[in-house]
Amino acid sequence: MKVLNFTLIIISFISISLKSFASDKNIGLNSYCGVKDGRLINEVFTPQELSISINKSKRWFKNSVSILISRETNILEKNKRKFNSKISFRIKNTNCELKAKIRQAGDWKDHIVYETKNGESYFIQSLNVELTDDHINGIRSFKLFSPKSRNIDGEIFITNLLRQIGYLAPRSYAVDVIVNDQKKIRMLLQENSDKELLESSGRREGPIFEGDERFIWLTNNLSLKLDKNSNRSRVIWREDLALSRMTNSEIALKSENLNQISIKALTDLNKYYLQHAFNQNTKVGGYFLNNKLIAKNLKNKETLDAFEAIMLSINNDHSLRPHNRIFYWNVFENYFEPIYYDGIISFKKNIIIDVPLNKKKGFEKAKTLLNKIEINKLLNAINESNLNFTYDEVRKILEIMKHNLNNIKYIKDINGINNKLYLNTYLNKISEFNLNKKNENKIILAFYNLIDNQFYLCENQILTDCNINELNLDQRKKISRGRLMINENFVQFLGSVKIEKNELNFINSEYKTNTAKISNFIIEHSDGIEIFFDDANKILEFKKSMKNAFAIIKYGNLKDIKIIFKNENNFNKKDNITIADNYMNLTGCLTLYKSKIENINIEISDTDCEDSINFINVEGTIDKISISNAISDAIDFDFSKIVINQIDVNNAGNDCADFSYGNYKVKELIATNCGDKAVSVGEKSKIKLDNLNIKDSNFAVAVKDESTAEIQNLVSINNKHCLAVYRKKKEFSGGIINITSDNCLKDLNIRDLGSQIYYEN
Q1: Structure confidence at residue 42 (pLDDT)
Q2: Domain coordinates in residue numbering, the chain
Q3: Residue 468 above 50 pLDDT?
Q4: How many Å apart are CA 604 and CA 602, to the nearest integer?
Q5: Please, is 433 exposed, middle or buried when counting C-beta atoms within 10 Å of its C-beta (0-12, 13-18, 19+)?
Q6: pLDDT in tens, 21-64
Q7: For 514-759, CATH number?
Q8: Which residue pairs from 523-530 have beta carbons closer than 8 angstroms and sit at least 24 positions apart in sequence?
Q9: Alpha carbon 703 to chain centroid distance?
């Protein structure tokens, strides 16, 4: 059985000017797990047992008791405050101890029980864990689910299955957990839906949304009336008021462009939820969102429908309830990808499921996906998660899922999309809620006007008093997150809306780009880009004449093509870097996305973008890349697998070649005058580098964040630093360099205590 790597690195403060690390501000990270005697433990490690020590254990105990004796049917927010804690485990013979913040997790009280067995009393409760300085297998934020709240075997099975067929699903493990020296409990460790989940699945960080449950779990004076049958108070289940919220709203604060992208996506998703709120008492509307509202094309709709079909094949309609859904806005695909979460899984046969008729093609796609499952690959992934399945058990479950997909009863779908009707109905419901004297907290309506780039809050009855509000950074983060309160009143953020004739209307958030289909690939581009294609000589030329102009080649199959990209926009190195100003938040003047390449040549000059060229999810071979005069990074590779014969970069304001999240091979690299790193390798990448000639740069080669570089024949001339290996990001461990030949002066190399430079003969 493979084991997943945990690493503890103690960063030493080397006698080097901090100015040298200007681009790596986190170089001084504190110690992390995986170091023994100054050497990195490289063995793969799967978490088997975690011991949790919660500070202020008496207060934690009181808080747990308070949840159990509460008259509320759900777990209140006041009982979900965070406690400083420590998590301990062992790697080989090394003890690891990580700092964490822990709170009670879950909505219902199935997430906490108090048991007494054999004279021993103990709590069993679901926990939300945030590691402060370190990670467990690249995971920094996760939940530990009690066995009564989750089917551990089912969760591990379905998350690994979904990841194999390309859907987003959290990494999940079965672990033994000891909390404050209580009884050892078998629990489910499952990562939260955040940046680490996206990047481990080959996606760039982007907006994540989920159903907003504030008005579902709401309690007030009405809750004082006890349910006679349970002797518990009732929650006010207002699913008809529940829209969506952004869970990682902090990324929207990174730039105005990301803010616009996030708000537009939230707006589209709220339209999606408004139809559900309008139809939530109907058979279809109560359990299904209408994928026609957010799917930009038939392919995307079938992908969404297929996901739902797979959920239903395991008797899991629970995770499809709108308030349980989680979505990732994929800026490149221009649609919402579902993220699996909160399933109630059962591998029962002969279930009969009613679904809308328009999902039929999605069910056919689901069958196709299940038929492509590699059973041995799935079996290995499941067993590496600390289960013990057999080949026949996996095969049998897959057969049950296929059987269930063939027993679908189709019912009539909800027809028509009328956002104005849905919005007006929703506004009336808010008005009714606010006029109800029994409701202690009112709802303040809020929206963002993309035309004047202002936030508006409607303090009084809906639209009678809507004024511009200058929100601070914390308020802007909270409003998209659905957590902003003003004078103890809820703020409900609709997204991009404008007032017309005393009515609210959604602002059209459709993105306008130019599209060119050339040969067997598609090019999307902004204004300020001219494209020329010489089919006879296989030359594809781009001319950039405006700042912020961009082009992206999508889904291409490029063979024996020469690509030329020239910036004719009065390029001056004193100019500022062009900030991505497009609906995909592109960093490259030219981007290749989800493409196959073979023997292509690339020439780029005088670019003013963050990246001259960016490869994302690309596979294949490149003959030569030649780049001159890049204002920032010259080349950026992400989530790719590429072999390159030659790279030649002259003058880059930052990195000359940046490799992330992939597997790469470079046979020759010449780099001169790189503002920071000539070669930067990070985020669990593996690379082979031959015949490097690097001059007049800050760093010759930097390898970080669990990446490994094999280097042959490095010539370093007049570089401030030669080799650097270290940990930059908290979700990773250190770096490794294996090198055979170099002329580096050893005092120009940099290594933290958890990273290694190995010299080979």
Answers
A1: 47
A2: 514-759
A3: yes
A4: 7
A5: buried
A6: 333 333 434 345 655 444 444 445 677 899 999 999 899 889 88
A7: 2.160.20
A8: 523/551, 523/552, 523/553, 523/554, 524/551, 524/552, 524/554, 525/549, 525/550, 525/551, 525/552, 526/550, 526/551, 526/582, 528/569
A9: 23
